[in-house]
Amino acid sequence: MEVFIKKIREAYPLSDETVRLLLGHTERVVLPKGELLMREGTVAKYTYFIIKGFARGFFHKEDRDITIWFASEGMSLLSMNGYMFSTAGYENVELLEECDLLKISNETLNCLFDSNIELANWGRRMSDGIILKFEKLFMERYFMSASERYHLLVEREPEILKKVPLRHIASFLGISQVSLSRIRAGIQ
């Protein structure tokens, strides 16, 4: 739990009292690899925080999965539509390994944000980080080769090759598995 608390404090320096407040409103759950926490077309009522584990967000398009993000310790798993608007989401969230998670209802999380300025600022910083991450991803897709994107991903998430099937990595990079195999063969 100490590593998790350190990670969430990297986004915003929460006081011990505020960390206790947040943790006091969560339920700790351990869920198995392959679990779908959220499904497209449904309203997600909970947000999860990863204490330990690895997950991905993806959607279906033309009979295939397209991975849009990966998440690890200290990160949140949520449907923005479910959280912000209580409407059905477009994404699926799958656990790529057994995960130790904190679960909190979106309603409770919003009440905490409304009543505690530290948590509101922390939530804003978390959202800012997500926006920045997607902005970088967008620029990388347009200005970097697939090989450069692969190397950057492995540099940012060194454990990814142990935790994520290659088909999901290829999907995230926007390339075929054959192309990914060629890239990997060139570096090994």
From TrEMBL:
Instruction: Report the domain of life of the source organism.
Output: Bacteria
Q: Which residues form a coiled coil?
A: none
Q: What Pfam families does this protein's entry cite? A: cNMP_binding (PF00027)
Q: Which Gene3D superfamilies match?
A: Jelly Rolls (2.60.120.10)
The Cyclic nucleotide-binding domain extends over: 14-113
Per its UniProt record, what PROSITE patterns does this chain match? CNMP_BINDING_3 (PS50042)
InterPro entries according to UniProt? cNMP-bd_dom, cNMP-bd_dom_sf, RmlC-like_jellyroll
Q: What is this protein called?
A: Crp/Fnr family transcriptional regulator
Q: What organism is listed for this UniProt entry?
A: Butyricimonas virosa
